[in-house]
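Researcher: Go.
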Amino acid sequence: MSKLFGLYGKLCATHPWEVIVAVITLTTCFLSLEKQVGTPKKNPICVGCFEEQFQAADMVLMTIIRCLAILYSYHQFRHLQKMGSKYILGLAGMFVVFSSFVFTSTLLNFLHIDLVDLKDALFFFLLLIDLSKAAVLAQYALTASNTEEIGQQIARGVSALGPTLTLDTIVETLVIGVGTLSGVHRLEMLSYFACLSVIVNYVIFMTFYPACLSLMLELARVHNYYGENELKVREKLLKENEKANPAVQRVKLIMSFGLLAVHVQSRWSLTDENTNSINNLKEAVNCSDDSSLYGMVMKQFVIGADHIVILILFLTLMVKFIFFKSKDHIKEHLEQDVLLEIKRDIQKKGHIRTTSINAESQTDDSIKFLEYEDGVNDKDTDVPRSLQTCLEIFRNDTGAKELSDKEIMMLVDTKHIPAYSLEMAVKNPERGVKIRRKIISNQMKMQSAFLNMPYQHYDYSKVMGACCENVVGYVPVPLGIAGPLLLDDKFYYIPMATTEGCLVASANRGCRALEKTGIKSRIVADGMTRGPVVRFQSITRACEVIYWLKKRENFTKVKEQFDSTSRFARLSKVSTHIAGRCLFIRFVAETGEAMGMNMISKGTEKSLAYIKSHFEDMEILSLSGNVCTDKKPSAINWIEGRGKSVVCEAIVPANIVHSILKTTTHALVDLNISKNMVGSAVSAAIGGFNAHAANIVTAIYIATGQDVAQNVGSSNCITLMEPCGDKGEDLLISCTMPSVEIGTVGGGTVLPAQGACLEMLGVKGAHSENPGDNAKQLAKIVCGAVLAGELSLMAALVTGHLVKSHLRLNRSYSEKDSPFKKSVGGSSSCQT
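Model: Structure:
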């Protein structure tokens, strides 16, 4: 049945002009019919007496009905207005207007009914129109991704709504049709009118409305109205289609057959004699003498029943359309209203969420963010208001909440809102990111630029003022796990975020090789550095500062100034390097759990101010003079260290070297000398006496929220291998990393995913007893993972498995051999 209605809906949507012309033609034909000659009047019995006697009662009752009908119509249009789309409201309104026109015009002409006879019944027409079905079909059409898909979506809507609507129309017609058997003339008129209105509404909905819907959207070039919510809207509509209750449908069918039997039996059993008796009774009652008590009572009884039945019919309709649907089907209404459902999904975190962040220009003040109701205020299809009006609204406390995205973009274009501070201007990070994406997309004239770049459901409040600016989304990076790694008698699973295939597998094999004996690690130094450059009038003056800083009492004063800027920063050493009149002062300090660049920069600035108070001719050229050295290869970091200086060592038994690494100790030692020692010396490498330390360091840094650019200095590593044991067949391997720049607080460590990786390692945040221990432990874990990676890669190079493993693990699945095929030449170097 649904498939049949779907084909019919597609026919209406793909041939809109033909359907519209056919409906209008039929309507015109009905309107052009001539009245039959000799048609008897519908109520010739004492009409004047009837109108004169009971005009007051009619006025009171029908006035109540009119008012309530108008209120109900207002209720339906308010429900449509909440959907946030002028298209849904306009299309549903068009359906009502045309249905009213077709019904009133055609019915009055075809049945030869005067307008005065239906002046009260017209209000029942408002109660019989259900706009929710028209709105749902419009929602189906608006989920089309392109103009060509509009017809398909309308067909889906008709296939979903058609069977239910058809059955409802039959049941309503039969139920209301019972009123035509009452024998009360006014009630019969209203019942006939109500039955026909239900049928006409159904015909218009199944013919004229889908055709106009398709034509209007195609002419207006409206497609993909819901944007990025399109899939979510379709999913909601699909779920709604699947909710049809078969029990309810069966009950409706049983009711239909029962009511049909009642109608047939009543029609056949009503003889001419019964009809004449009823008419005689009406005439006797309506035209009896007013002085007759019996006549007065009978008139009151008959007319009272008339009014009571009308009122019952009205109340039944009201209960059906308002109370029944509001209470028993409120969930259905809200789920059909897909935009409200999307709004509810976005607001799952809470109705109003406030988050404080540190702005670039405001270090102490906090900025409050309000949760943005996505899909409600984003009226991209509406025409923006004037610039002056938008400015007045924006300057209110919650002004941005009342402005659409287009209006915010207009304020950005006119320089009233800086593009870099959209999140603060609209008081919601995610909405600010969305608007910035639209602005950049329009400037690039590439509407598809951001289609595959996610931005929703991310906590940007932790990013702003800390991690990134001008945010347009986030880039997911695959996260792998290597391990367990046995380090200092404790197992760790190492999170590694990378896009390089084979890397995690290789590190995992190294962890396997070390699983029995484990790794020993030590921190040999801890001190982040900052090296400002200052200048004097002469080298003599510069040398005076060098001598001045070497005196213990002066260093103590400088340290006091430095340490006063932080609870954790503690100055441990100051070294000087002179080049002509320029003096480079390298401050070295412990920074607790933080990597410490901002912390040590603040302390250095305070110390320089103190030194300048003694040497007023000192010119501070830059807070960083490149002898720090930060994010650049340098011998000073390699020699003197920076951050955490770590050394790790492990002994790999000969049987493990053979069984897991597929090689020998002699071959590994020989390759390490030739490659990592001689080769790096020939290339004049600085800190590069290793196989691939930067690979492991960078993957862990991305996973744990470190400053990834600091892998330049943090990857300084020398890998040493030598034979050991009684027979010299065991392998002693060590990795020394003098400048691991790392922390467990601040920067990207505050982000949820990165914080989860730190928590996995047991080093998240500050140590409860000894601040700084978590950062030191993380540095040890990095060095231990580097050692595992060095061991695995060197073994792969010795056995010639490097290329084979990359061909197997570092290419798309379509280019790989079957996973059940055995690699040529033995096991892969990255076997896990």
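Model: The domain at 350-462 is CATH 1.10.3270.10 (HMGR, N-terminal domain).
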